[in-house]
Structures are given as C-alpha cells and as structure tokens.
Amino acid sequence: MLHFHKYLMVFTLFLALSCSKKEHNSFTFVQLCDTQLGMGGYNHDIETFNQAVKQINSLNPDFVLICGDLVNDATESSYADFKNIRDKFKIPCYCAPGNHDVGNIPNDSTLSFYRKTIGKDYYKIENKGFSFVVTNSLLWKEDIINESEKHDDWFKEILKSIKLKKQPIFIVGHYPLFVNDIEEQEGYFNLPLEKRKELLNLFDQNNVVAYLSGHAHKPLINNYKSIQLVSGEATSKNLDSVSDLGFRIWEVSNDTIMQHFVSLQKPFNENPMN
Ligand SMILES: [Zn+2]
What we know:
five-stranded mixed beta sheet
C-alpha cells in the first residue's frame, strides 16, 4: 500500500511536470523593425519608438527583437538617444545590426563602433525551449575579409549545436533573403542568390522555423517549405503607401507559431519632416 502511494505520488508529479512544461513553452515575443531614428524625421522617429516601447510594455511579451537599422546615421549621439528609449523596455531587448548601423559595406571601424556602442553583432539566446540566433546579415550581403567567413563558421557551428538539443530555431537578421521570388536577381532589398540558397538549405536541415528581418519598410511574408520568412513594418517610415507604423507580435507554442501586426496608437507626430 505504501508503495502504491509512492508510485501514485511520482506519477502525479510526472503529470504535473509534463503539463507545466507544455504551458511553459507557450510565449509571445515582439519583432520590431527599422526604428531607424532619423529616417522619418528625427523627432518623429523618437516619438514613434517611444510609443512602440509603451505599447510593447503593456503587452508584456517575454522579450523584443529589433531587426536592425536602429538609427539612420550611426553616431554617439543617435545611439545615445536610441539606448535611452530602449532602456525603457521592461523586458529584455535584443538587437541585430542593419546597414545603417554598420554601413552597406561594413569595415573594421564601423563594426568596432557598433560592438563598442551597442554590443555583440551576432549571438544566440534561448527562451523556453526555443533558440534565437541573431545574425549580422551584412556579412552575408557582402563578403567582408576577416569577418564573413568567421560569421559563417560560427553560424554553421551554432546551428549544429542547437540541432543536437533538438530545439526549434528562429533566425534574426536585417536583410530579407528575397522579396517576392526565391529565384529573383540580387538587388538592394535581398541577399545574393547563392547565399540565399545556401542559407535556406541550412535552415531546412536544422529545424529553423522562421527567419525574421527588417530593411523592407513594408511587410514581406513568405514561406520556404514550412519556414516562415517575415520582414515587418518600420516604426520610423514605411516605403509603401498603405502600411501603418507598428510591430509584429509572435505567438509561440509547441504546436503553432503565428504572428500578426500591431499598429502604433496615435497621437504621435504624423508629419515626418518634424
Ligand atoms: Zn536597412
């Protein structure tokens, strides 16, 4: 009888743990794109970024990812303004670099300025059984001596190590892989064709569930097999005439991964020249 009770207790504990584990694994996070202070008018972009922080705090996601172009001109002063607003998040905020942060063709001085002022340009975080690999997609866009190869080696290695843990992976970058068609020619808004295909193959082989990017200043929602490829609206300025400023909220559970857009609430200063 005593033994039976013991087994019952162990079984109940097992049930409780497996239930809580499932619940534990559902969470939300926010994808924020192109805060790019100075692109839609400096004061305007300060205001809209502040507004995004306010709304995101009230939604209380686990964390926020900014998919690059934190500022329009990377200087001590624009980054100080950026960090001032970013520090108002009540949740962790992780940044990826954009072309406006480290230059269209990054070099030693732009990369070291970013690393000194903002932090690492590529790294990995984990949340509730999911991995998030933040990349420096500029090093995919351009072949930078001493940097791109190192970044590629790190990327392959990190995917391999996460695969061993059987964790689903989100990849975070700045450049969309492609805009409309996987076979399209390389232009300002996508990655080189060969690199794009190499990455999609790597994603496919390593349990990548989504690739999040910015740079487009309008929504780009694509799929490759079951991998979601999502570039979101900016908070600074969009380049299409229909999208609101805002951010995307991702809802993640063991069974489904979905995202939707959230508009910035007005009033914020709508005249982008101010
Ligand atoms: Zn950009």
